[in-house]
Specification:
mainly beta, about 375 residues, about 55% strand, 5 helices
Length: about 375
């Protein structure tokens, strides 16, 4: 009776209160022991209902572009995720950010805080379909990683809108290859809410959709992994944007390194971070914008429970307008300590540096930050 009451309380807390699959170093979802199992000493787990919390916070010492230093504590992530297999074929997933606005967007009527609300049906081991709000499948290992363990995103990924309403079909001919085709909305908000008065001269697309093809592969007995994707966005009438992301990873037992190349050719500027980008604030948005990003990250586990990592980024953003070019360099390095084999709890120390060269203003901005904190992906049920 006491155990039943306790389980009821845990269910109530979980359903009244988000996190991406853990692709990085540390415990995977299947290795976790839930709090309910620990407390109630359950021996049998129901895979229909799984609840996770992602939490990350740190103390920071940072230098801004004006060379001023400051110190603060900051929360980075607070997400809840509920997912499960209702049958051997039907499954679902819900992920929501608890520290983001909950107002419904004007196009899809979802809150920006809701990353994922989807259902899937598995016909067999090779074929499945999914529908609902989901993450677009652009590719690249930085894009694919759990946001909690990203210490600094590249400019391109940081400026993307990638949680959209749509549908996807997946074909996996064997355990080493997965091919995905996805169609989603091109935006969460209506055209006028993003481009403002530019809608007086540019017409919204009659079919504002994104089409993406993606290949996830494991080669040479999982030694080389791929996250390759590309697609088209029908941004407006007569304006199509093309994106390509190619991520390749060398996966050794104690050392991993990936290289991502990301490219966007945008007939109508949607990423919106060239020096002259000003969507919604001007009647003449940037056109023919070109974005390129190169990301290299290495990780090394010299002994159990420790992970040493470093990442470098070089990026450009420009259009045909005079002096409308931004060059960006980013780099960070640090160490993680994971004390428990069956829990994804990480204590970390990381240094992050950024430098941006704005040709329109001829100003170079440098920022530096040192963070000491923790990340914890908690399996609550």
């Amino acid at each position: 009776m006491k155990h039943s009451l306790l389980l009821g309380m845990l269910l109530a807390v979980a359903t009244s209160s988000n996190a991406q699959d853990n692709h990085g170093y540390g415990a995977g979802d299947g290795d976790f022991k839930s709090l309910s199992e620990e407390i109630a000493k359950l021996k049998k787990h129901n895979d229909m209902f799984n609840v996770y919390f992602n939490y990350a916070a740190s103390g920071q010492v940072a230098q801004d572009a004006n060379k001023d230093w400051g110190t603060k504590f900051a929360n980075k992530q607070l997400r809840i995720e509920i997912k499960g297999n209702l049958t051997d074929k039907l499954y679902y997933r819900f992920r929501h950010r608890l520290n983001k606005a909950n107002g419904a967007q004007s196009e899809d009527n979802f809150a920006k805080a809701t990353d994922i609300m989807m259902v899937g049906y598995k016909f067999n081991d090779k074929l499945k379909v999914e529908a609902g709000k989901m993450c677009q499948i652009w590719g690249g290992f930085e894009f694919d990683e759990n946001p909690m363990v990203i210490y600094q995103y590249s400019d391109m990924v940081d400026n993307m809108d990638n949680f959209m309403l749509g549908a996807m079909i997946t074909y996996a001919p064997n355990e080493n290859h997965e091919f995905n085709f996805q169609i989603t909305d091109v935006r969460n908000d209506k055209f006028a809410d993003i481009y403002g008065t530019a809608t007086n001269t540019i017409n919204a697309s009659k079919a504002p959709l994104t089409y993406i093809f993606n290949w996830n592969g494991n080669l040479f007995d999982n030694l080389v992994q791929t996250r390759w994707g590309g697609g088209l966005q029908s941004e407006a009438d007569g304006y199509n944007n093309w994106l390509l992301m190619l991520g390749t990873k060398l996966n050794l037992s104690k050392f991993q390194v990936f290289f991502d190349y990301m490219m966007a050719n945008e007939a109508l500027d949607r990423l919106n971070y060239t020096p002259l980008s000003a969507n919604g604030k001007t009647a003449t948005p940037v056109k023919d914008a070109k974005y390129n990003s190169f990301v290299l990250k290495a990780e090394y586990q010299p002994v159990p429970h420790w992970n040493i990592f470093a990442q470098g980024m070089y990026e450009t953003a420009k259009s045909d307008l005079p002096n409308n070019e931004l060059k960006s360099i980013g780099y960070y390095a640090g160490v993680e300590y994971l004390p428990f084999e069956k829990q994804d709890l990480r204590f970390f120390l990381v240094y992050i540096g950024r430098s941006q060269d704005n040709k329109n203003t001829n100003i170079t901005k440098d920022t530096n930050r040192v963070s000491l904190g923790l990340m914890y992906r908690i399996k609550a049920f």
